[in-house]
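Human:
Take a look at this sequence-structure pair and walk me through the C-alpha cells.
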Amino acid sequence: MKAMLHHHHTLFSPHTAFCRARQKCNRSDIITTASSSSNHAKLLPLRMWPSTRRHTIPLANDHSLPAYGVTPDDAHEGLKPCDNTSFPAVKESTIDKKSGLHSVGEKTELILLALPAVFGQAIEPTAQLMETAYIGRLGSLELASAGIGVSIFNIVSKIFNIPLLSIATSFVAEDISKNASKHSSSGKLELSSVSSALILAAGIGIIEALALFLGSGLFLKLMGVSPVSPMHKPAKLFLSLRALGAPANVVMLAVQGIFRGFKDTKTPVVYIGLGNLSAVALLPLLVYGFQLGIAGAAISTVASQYIITLLLLWSLSKRAVLLPPRMDQLEFSGYLKSGGMLLGRTLSILLTMTIGTSMAARQGPTAMAAHQICLQVWLAVSLLADALAVSAQALIASSYAILDYKRVQKIAMFALQIGVISGLALATGLYASFGNIATLFTSDPEVLMVVKSCALFVCASQPINALAFIFDGLHYGVSDFDYVGQATIVVGIISSLVLLYAPSVFGLAGVWAGLTTLMGLRTAAGILRLLWKSGPWSFLHEEA
C-alpha cells in the first residue's frame, strides 16, 4: 500500500532555515501562535514553500486537530535564509525551545491531555446508556425496536457527520491563523470556513432527515425487520421521530469542530452536558409520566439535540459571524474534496456494524434486545480508550512535525502500554460485574440469559479494542491516512464475511465473534504498519 511521505519535505527547505542565536539574521524570532484560552505560545513548525492544500490532521475515530498556522502578517513576511546553518542545527534548535512540548514529560503530558478527553467522550455514551435503561424497563420488544432505530439513525447520520467534524476543525484553525479578519461593525471574526461549515451541515442535516423519515420502512427492511415483525411498527415510529433531530445533530457536530478550530474544547463539553441533562430529565417524564413509551424517549433525545445546538450557536455567535454577507465568500470545494479517505474508512466500519445489527435482528426480539445491551456497554467502555488515542495523536503530530522521532517513539510506546493495561483492567472489571450491569437495562430472564452468553466476547475484546483505537491515533499522528483508510476497508470486508456466516451457526455469539474479528484485525493492521521498514514509521528501524 502506498506509504505517506515524511514531513521533512514540507516542514523544512534545504535552501531556507531560521537561525539559532545568529545576530546577522534579520529575523531571529520564532513565529508562534497562541491559544485563545491560553497565553502560552506554542512553537510553530515552519513550511518554507506554500502548500497547495490545507494541512489537515484528522484525529482517531472521527476527531480532528488543527494544524498550526501563522498570523497574516507573519505569512507575508516569511523567513530570510541564513548561511552556514545546518539542518541538524535547525532541528535541534526547534526541539530545544521551551514551547510546551518539553515543559513536562511525555507520560505526564499524555495523561493530562487524556483526562479531560475522557470526560468529554463519556457524556454521550452515558446518556445513551440511560436511555437504553429506561426503554429496557418497558420490555424486550421496545428495547429491540429502539435498538434498531438507533442503529439506523447512527449509520445514516455518521456517514457524513464524522468527516465534516474533522475537516471543519482543521479548516477553521487555518482560517483563523491566516485569513482572520474582524467584521467592520460587530468586531467579530469573519471566517468563510465557519459559514461554509454551518451551511453545509444544515443542508446535510435536512437531507438526512428526509431520508430517515421517508425511507424508514425501507431501512428497516434492509435491517431484516419485515412489516409482519412485531418490531416493525414501534421501530418505524421511533426512527421517524429521531429523524426530526438530524439537522440539529449535524449542525451540533459541525459547531463542535469549529470550536476545536478555535482551540476551545471546554465550551462544547459544558453545553453538551447541559443538553444531555435535559434529556435525562425529560426521559422519565415523557416515557412514564405521559406514557409515550419509546416515542417519548425519541422526543427527549431530539429536544436535547436542539437545545445543545442552539446553545452552541449562541456561544459561537459571540465570536464569529455565522453567515457571510455574500454567498460568493463561501468555500464548499475544500470541504467536499478533503473527506474522501475519511469517508471510506467511516463507511467501512459503519457497514460492518450494520451487518452485525442486521444479523442480530434476524435472531428475534430477545436476541436483538440482548445485543443492544451488549453493544451499548461495549461502545461506552471502548470509547474511553479513544480519549487516550486522541491525546496520543495530538502529541505525536506536534513532535513528528519537528522531526523529534525519539519523542514520537516514547509517546507511542507509552500509549500502547497504557492501552494494554487499561484494556485488561476493563476486561476484568466487566467480567466481574457484567451480570449486575445487564440488570440495569432489563429484568427479562430470557434476555439476561442471552446477554450472559455474549458477555465473554464483550469483556475479552477490551484490550483489543483499546489497542485498535490507539493504533488509529498513532497512524493519524504521522499523517498515514492512506494506509489507515485502505487497511480499514480490507478489514471491514473480512469481518463482514464472518458476520454473514457465523450467526447462522453460532447465533448471537457469531455476531460478536464477527465484531471481535473487526477489532482484532484493526489491531493487527496497526502492528503491521509499525513493523514496515518503509513509510512514516521507518525511523523505528534505523540504527542509532
About this structure: The two ends are 27 Å apart (CA to CA). The chain has 19 helices and four strands. Strands lie at 32-34, 41-43, 56-59, 63-66.
